[in-house]
């Protein structure tokens, strides 16, 4: 029986694992099953599972609170599924692909050996909601699936093409170079998926595709993609910069934190031996964002409560729209108006029809217009065109899939990874 690929995506509020058959360069990986545990930041956690016609949706699960718990729970679920004969034995898994948010200077997927592991560990403080969690999963795979080859796919890699004047911070350059302080950018696996998928749907070669993509999930970012490559993105040295998210403030005046607390620079109580974060980072990463304004991390709830007149939810909604517009407007100008499409993706981008409507309403002045009826229908394929007829620029929804992107890149490089093993 051919071996399988396990694609593991440790997000800030969820862990998603997809199982794919095959690892050949010439074929697209074919998905056998997809499991996800969501709600890690807003318990109880829930399990969603899809295998063919077999579906479990939002089933509440107990005692699953961390990314590691979630992965172990999913692995057990997959191994015990009689309808998944491809995964009867642990030895059936050849590759475990891990989404690693911060990869520093790494610009391509890399087999995780001791050295890579330590490199990722060193970057943990720069992605406090992500890297350490992903590494707990790498460890769990190492212990429970000793035959599998672990590969890291870096969220920052897609942004290695951002020009110097855009990725440089205006600070002392010697210190900046020494401490590697620059814009890295994240959600790159998602943007790589979106770029390929939208180019295919518009029937354009990737290297002539110009889009503004919005990945709006628990973490939210925007990316200007010029000739198929990242030109600018809203996240920076860490995933805190740019747009606000479920528990993240996004960009604020850097002086704010010293007026918020007198202990900004002190180690946070949630620091561990593997993760050193300050009070400031704790507050801005974990105690801000929607949750701080509206009391929930769920943007679906925020949207419906805002519609019913909840003032705090309306404020969270309006604030998000405003910040998105800042970046879309700026990117549009920097791209000289050469735009094939504005693309919505991520949980909120894909499901939040009200948010899409409000954002695009403000962009009508740029010739970006959507069709209200098309916008309201749930997306039923990978790329859905919701533009108004006659709109100068297209508006699309892309159902992005970081696990599929990793599996695809894994298949393309499988021979190299085998050689490295
Ligand atoms: N109908 C909806 N309208 C707006 N947002 C929604 C809706 N359904 C789910 N969401 C939001 O999508 C977000 C999760 O996005 P997702 O990309 O799956 O998360 P993650 O960043 O953990 O990968 C949550 O904030 C969730 O509330
Ligand atoms: C980079 C990032 O913020 O990822 P996520 O949206 O999965 O938390
Ligand atoms: Mg995500």
Automatic annotation (TrEMBL):
A Pfam entry, by short name: Acetate_kinase
Name assigned to this protein: Probable acetate kinase
Site positions for Transition state stabilizer: 187, 248
Positions of Mg(2+) binding: 9, 402
Known cofactor(s): Mg(2+)
Catalytic activity: acetate + ATP = acetyl phosphate + ADP
Keywords on record: ATP-binding, Kinase, Magnesium, Metal-binding, Nucleotide-binding, Transferase
SUPFAM superfamilies listed in its UniProt record: Actin-like ATPase domain
Organism per entry: Aureobasidium namibiae CBS 147.97
Pathway(s) annotated for this protein in UniProt: Metabolic intermediate biosynthesis; acetyl-CoA biosynthesis; acetyl-CoA from acetate: step 1/2
EC number(s) per entry: 2.7.2.1
InterPro entries (UniProt xref): Ac/propionate_kinase, Aliphatic_acid_kin_short-chain, Aliphatic_acid_kinase_CS, ATPase_NBD
Residue positions binding ATP: 16, 215-219
Binding-site residues for substrate, renumbered to this chain: 99
């Amino acid at each position: 029986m051919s071996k399988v690929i396990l694609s593991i995506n440790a997000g800030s509020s969820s862990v998603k694992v997809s199982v794919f058959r095959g690892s050949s360069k010439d074929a697209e990986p074919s998905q056998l099953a997809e499991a996800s545990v969501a709600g890690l930041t807003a318990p109880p956690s829930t399990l969603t599972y899809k295998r063919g016609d077999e579906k479990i949706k939002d089933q509440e699960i107990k005692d699953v609170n961390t990314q590691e718990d979630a992965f172990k729970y999913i692995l057990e679920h997959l191994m015990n599924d009689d309808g998944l004969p491809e995964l009867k034995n642990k030895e059936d898994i050849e590759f475990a692909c891990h989404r690693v948010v911060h990869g520093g200077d790494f610009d391509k997927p890399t087999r995780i050996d001791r050295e890579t592991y330590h490199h990722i560990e060193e970057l943990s403080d720069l992605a406090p909601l992500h890297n350490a969690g992903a590494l707990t999963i790498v460890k769990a795979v190492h212990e429970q699936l000793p035959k599998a080859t672990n590969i890291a796919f870096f969220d920052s890699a897609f942004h290695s093409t951002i020009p110097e004047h855009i990725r440089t911070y205006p600070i002392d350059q010697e210190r900046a170079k020494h401490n590697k302080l620059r814009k890295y950018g994240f959600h790159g696996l998602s943007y790589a998926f979106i770029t390929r998928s939208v180019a295919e749907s518009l029937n354009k070669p990737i290297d002539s595709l110009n889009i503004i993509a919005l990945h709006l999930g628990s973490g939210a970012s925007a990316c200007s993609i010029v000739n198929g490559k990242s030109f600018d993105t809203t996240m920076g040295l860490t995933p805190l910069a740019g747009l606000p998210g479920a528990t993240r403030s996004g960009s604020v005046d850097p002086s704010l934190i010293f007026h918020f607390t007198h202990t900004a620079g002190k180690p946070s109580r949630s620091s561990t031996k593997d993760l050193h974060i300050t009070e400031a980072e704790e507050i801005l990463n974990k105690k801000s964002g929607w949750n701080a304004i509206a009391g929930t991390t769920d943007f679906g709830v925020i949207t419906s409560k805002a519609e019913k007149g909840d003032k705090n939810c309306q404020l969270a909604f309006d604030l998000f729209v405003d910040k998105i517009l800042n970046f879309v407007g700026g990117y549009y100008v920097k791209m000289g108006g050469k735009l094939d499409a504005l693309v919505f993706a991520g949980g909120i981008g894909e499901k939040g029809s009200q948010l899409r409507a409000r954002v695009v309403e403000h962009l009508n002045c740029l010739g970006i217009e959507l069709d209200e009826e098309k916008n309201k229908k749930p997306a039923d394929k990978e790329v859905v065109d919701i533009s108004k007829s006659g709109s100068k620029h297209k508006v699309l929804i892309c159902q992005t899939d970081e696990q599929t992107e990793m599996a695809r890149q894994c298949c393309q490089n499988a021979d190299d990874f085998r050689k490295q093993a």
